[in-house]
Amino acid sequence: MPARRRTLWRPAFTTGVIAMAVLVLIALIAPLLVSQAAHEFTGEVALPPGADHPLGTNDFGQDNLARALVATRLTLVMTVLATAISVAGGLAAGIAIWLSPRVVREWCLRLLETAVAYPTLITALIIAAILLPGATTAVIALGIAGIPGFARVTANLAGRTARAEYFLTARFLGVGSWHLATRHMIPSMAEPLLVLSTTIFATVLVEISALSFVGLGVQQPQYDLGSLLNDSLESLYTQPVEALGPAVMIVLASVAAMLIGDGLAAHANPRAARRWAPRAKVAEASAVPATGDTALVRVRDLRVTSAGGETELVHGIDLHVEPGEIVGLVGESGSGKSLTALSVAGLLADELGQSADELRVGAMNMLGTPAAADLAREIALIYQDPGTTFNPSRTMGPQLTEVLRTHMGVPRKEARARVAEALETVGITEPELRMRQHPHQLSGGMRQRAMIAAAVVTRPSLLIADEPTTALDVTVQVGVLRAFRALRDRLGTAILFISHDLGVVRELCDRVVVMRAGEVVGELTGAQLAAGEVSHPYTRTLLDAVPEIDTERGLAAGADVPLEATAPAGKEAR
Amino acid sequence: MTATVHTAEARAGAAGRSPADPGLVVRARSLDLSFGAHHVLRSIDLDVVRGRVVGLVGESGSGKSTLAKAIVGMHRIDGGALEVVGEDVSRPRRAQRRALHRRIQYVPQDPYSSLNPRRTIGQTLAEAFDPARGTPHSRADAIASALADVQLDPEAASRYPHEFSGGQRQRIAIARALAVAPELIVADEITSALDVSVQAEVVRLLAELRAKGADHSMLFITHNLAVAQAVCDDVVVMRRGQIVETGAIDRVFAAPAQEYTRTLLDSVPGAKGFALS
Is A157 exposed, middle or buried (0-12, 13-18, 19+ CB in 10 A)? Predict the structure, then answer.
């Protein structure tokens, strides 16, 4: 928590708090100390600024500075009350919308959107014009006018909470609406709403002064900052200094509120305020393999640190991939397997730190900046989520032929023909049609296989696949795994296969590297893994944790199992 | 005809709680459900016998999650009849649903979003025991024993969700579901978001709870056939909104009657029929 507290008390926020504290102090004590100077009619009318009257006097001989200080109290009190009405009303409306049945909710949300479209000041002017002008009217008018805006944001935040699983579960436990709101909804949106409240405070302050300025707010003999501005209007050319006091107070109060709001917002989202410098690149883009090193990928003592460098995430790992080898990189979440793969691909996020004695793919130094064309030719990547790999607004064709066309100079027509052929080899039917389709028209398994096909045509020496089948159904997974195997068998492409699934890795990989908490804890061949010859305790645990399907058990115990519990024939879906 | 899940081994002891059909916690007849023009469930007939753990397996889009959500009342059915814990919920009213809430519990998939991050574990569990008051002090004993059931220390009650691992959170979610002593628990892919070692921990917990004599019925939705076999007595295989095959899980896996079930089983890496070339 100390790190977060530091982010709160930054200079801007501190300035805002101090300014607001001064204003509140003025509001509290000014009416007690200087009310005589502010209210007494004297003969010293319309004096210019001087020693006795720093901002001069008005047409009735009252001290301008004293009046501005005294008026601050009424303006602040009115602003606080109006803000409270907006916040309380908006909060209640926003939450009630999400606790009501769906039909009511939909209508209320549309109604709210319509209400938000009206500028608050105009709404407030209408309300103020209907009611008798006065301080109470101004507060009610602006309070009500501010409700829709606050309710809209509350409803958005409440909607997010209402869809959270903990909220659904609480509903299932029979928790009543009041407790759902107070226990689950309000705490989950307290921070953003607090920030929004300060913004509303600043807006209301200006608007309430505007109402008084046009004569619909505070009436004589009461006065606030807005009506003081109005008073100063008549003598603006002869005595401009009279406007200075109220103007400065209004600006000061709203700026203070804004600064506090900004500070709270930055505190609520510490990431937004974090600074980091991009990682420095090593100059050399090429690397010479050591004599006798036949490996395609050579990683020695790779370390990855978090943004800012406080935490080491990958603790000096060694890894190599021979040409044409399928290496599985296995581990649970947080093991550093994906960071390692990203480093090898040269795609580690810029805010993360990276160092290694050697980080080489072919003749490219991945610590430097190899030419884009080399990268595109040598390394192909397949990601976990086939839904986000392709640009949804473009058809498949141009995306699949991109590397061929832009980096390898193959004419468009020939590129399409070669991709079509490759699509067929990974088991995609009607390749020409598929290339004219958009990504969403293909299934997840088809998109992953299309990625493999794109790799087939560019003949990369290395394919890095990060959990490529995790998002897929098992029946689809088989096809994708077969395509990987075929790619290696036919073109000799080496594959770095990142996965958490030892079952999949056991079937596909020649060699398996097991990672845990940023370290390599074991290495074994696919044959060893398949035979269960695992010595390292963690690898053993991991392997034992993989649930095995047993299709024999039912046969052994089959005698006493009633067979009539089977679905009727013809029930099977096509 | 109805796809009765394993009538032969219905537990006699659990019977007699509902007048309609004491032996069944779920009884669906030609149940239909569609989202707009898209038919998600088509004429589903399903019986779940009291006291059994039934696996609902299938691939994405098979409708298994939708069926589970329809059973707990998160989706309204468009046709057919549905009885849950003996109550007809084909056309549920709000009050009726509310009354059923504590008899049916739903455990969601993601352990990271199923616990309110701003409430202690004690507060979360207290809410299950007493939704109106929900103060942990009055229920300290009950909370401690609920935590003990899922092998967590009583002091866990004063901690917040972020202090626990995914597996521990899933155990807390299970403890919360068990707290109300429901007749039916619907567990929707509760091991899918977990690492394998954590998944094994949850599977072990479910087995131990049964060994200790927990008498609730459970509908266990998963796409992982091996996990289903480790947890369930019976299986319901679904595909494209229809039930393909049902029966005792070991028997179905040993001798599937349907071609699709066979394909599904052979696709599991490590299965006998699995081959990459």
Answer: buried
